[in-house]
Write a structure and sequence with these properties.
The structure holds two protein chains of two kinds. Chain A is mostly beta strands. Helices cover about 0% and strands about 50% of the residues of chain A. The relative contact order of chain A is 0.34. Helices cover about 0% and strands about 55% of the residues of chain B. Classes of the chains: A mainly beta, B mainly beta.
Chain lengths: ~110, ~110
């Protein structure tokens, strides 16, 4: 079974530029999560989707971050404009459904904002 | 807000020694997870603990859960260098859509 796929794996941009990350969850998984992991910290939830609907985006900085999962499968996370403090690893995870099924994590995208 | 605290945050131990990592959480949770993360890598699931008194073991690692004390432990027996990594505990809660709340992680270094 293929795991969670993410691209790109690495990205370096200058502040005020925009960037987009892509995630393809495990086939059949209805729930998709985006987490931000700043160096030396645990991952923090940014947004959670159930199919193509948003379950929780309370910790998403909506002035600069946006995310979508239009067809309930792949998802994109965008940052525009990026700030230095956005430098982090962005992890995508998926689970079979909302009801407490185990989450499987992708390899992450390491973003460096200079 | 569900808070998760781990200690210690850094741990250097000799091969062959035993040690325990502690994870406290602030409110009732549905499940407790332990993950391992190697440098530059993603999260690898180690254990999922579902109920009070749950104990799971895999190789030199054993995890336990006390829901009354809101405490989980990850015990390392006879450490080997391959166990060097960062270990995270995380909890989920139905009130937050089962999203994971992570601790800050314990960075473990096993030395000869």
């Amino acid at each position: 079974e293929a795991g969670v796929a993410q691209s790109p794996r690495y990205k370096i941009i200058e502040k005020r530029q925009s960037v987009a990350f892509w995630c393809n969850p495990i086939s059949g998984h209805a729930t998709l999560y985006w987490y931000q992991q700043i160096l030396g910290q645990g991952p923090k939830l940014l947004i959670q989707f159930q199919n193509n609907g948003v379950v929780d985006d309370s910790q998403l900085p909506k002035d600069r971050f946006s995310a979508e999962r239009l067809k309930g499968v792949d998802s994109t996370l965008k940052i525009q404009p990026a700030k230095l403090e956005d430098s982090a690893v962005y992890l995508c995870a998926s689970s079979l459904d909302l009801a407490g099924h185990e989450q499987y994590f992708g390899p992450g995208t390491r973003l460096t904002v200079t | 807000e569900l808070k998760v605290e781990q200690n210690p945050l850094f741990l250097s131990m000799q091969e062959g020694k035993n040690y325990t990592i502690y994870c406290n959480y602030s409110t009732t949770s549905d499940r407790l997870y332990w993950y391992r993360q190697d440098p530059g890598k993603s999260l690898e699931s180690l254990f999922v603990l579902l109920s009070n008194g749950a104990v799971k073991q895999e190789g030199r690692l054993m995890a336990s859960l006390d829901t009354k004390a809101r405490l989980s432990t990850l015990h390392i027996t006879a450490a080997v260098h391959d166990l060097s990594a960062t270990y995270f505990c995380a909890v989920d809660n139905s009130n937050s859509g089962y999203a994971l709340n992570f601790g800050k992680g314990t960075s473990l270094l096993v030395t000869p």
